[in-house]
């Protein structure tokens, strides 16, 4: 971008690679690029005088809009936590104030909601992958969701009886296939390790082992 100075808009040119964007020239020099929406909003026309303060405002709003669109594009692929979006934006080298405004925009319009994300994530991990709450907790912590939110979601989404029944079913299938020919000690040890890796806690694992390995 050229140095910002007061001048006259001498040319407004539609960009070749993006028909929804325009290049603004001030005093015959390229000044900045802008979306069609902002072009209309600020009524930028050839021959209009524009001062540095106005250009700064327009450029900042354009950058903010680009940041918002980038974040929305990320969320169009899959749901993300606040921390995940923030991390991606930092990798794109957006400035901190811009990132904060984007995150506020996303939260205001409920595009990101860590409580909803946690609930949905838990349901998928329980129903599809058959994981236990210990592993799910760790995965949610890694995604930047605070412990209180995670625990509340766990309490709401995971029924202890259902979790035990799922672990029991997994254990029974594993015992009847992979560990079928092992002795009791090996079955006990291997099945316990398997359920631990799946994220089940000590009490559930012990109950499953006592039920299946006799």
From TrEMBL:
Its main location: cytoplasm. Residues 162-209 form the RecX third three-helical domain. Residues 69-106 form the RecX first three-helical domain. Gene3D superfamilies: Winged helix-like DNA-binding domain superfamily/Winged helix DNA-binding domain. It comes from the Bacteria. One of its GO terms (cellular component) is cytoplasm. Residues 113-154 form the RecX second three-helical domain. Pfam families: RecX_HTH1 (PF21982), RecX_HTH2 (PF02631), RecX_HTH3 (PF21981). Keywords: Cytoplasm. Belongs to the RecX family. Modulates RecA activity. HAMAP family: RecX. This is Regulatory protein RecX. It comes from Anaerosolibacter carboniphilus.
């Amino acid at each position: 971008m050229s140095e910002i100075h007061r001048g006259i808009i001498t040319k407004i040119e539609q960009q070749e690679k993006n028909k929804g964007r325009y290049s603004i020239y001030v005093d015959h020099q390229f000044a900045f690029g802008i979306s069609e929406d902002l072009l209309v909003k600020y009524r930028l026309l050839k021959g209009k005088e524009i001062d540095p303060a106005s250009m700064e405002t327009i450029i900042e709003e354009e950058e903010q809009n680009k940041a918002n669109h980038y974040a929305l594009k990320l969320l169009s692929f899959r749901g993300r936590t606040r921390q995940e979006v923030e991390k991606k934006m930092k990798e794109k080298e957006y400035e901190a104030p811009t990132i904060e405004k984007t995150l506020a925009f996303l939260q205001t319009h409920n595009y990101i909601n860590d409580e909803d994300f946690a609930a949905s994530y838990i349901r998928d991990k329980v129903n599809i992958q058959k994981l236990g709450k210990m592993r799910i907790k760790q995965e949610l912590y890694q995604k930047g969701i605070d412990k209180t939110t995670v625990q509340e979601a766990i309490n709401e989404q995971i029924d202890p009886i259902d979790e035990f029944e799922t672990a029991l079913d997994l254990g029974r299938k594993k015992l009847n296939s992979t560990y079928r020919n092992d002795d009791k000690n090996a079955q006990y040890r291997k099945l316990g390790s398997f359920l631990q890796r799946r994220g089940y806690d000590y009490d559930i694992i012990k109950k499953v082992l006592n039920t299946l390995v006799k």
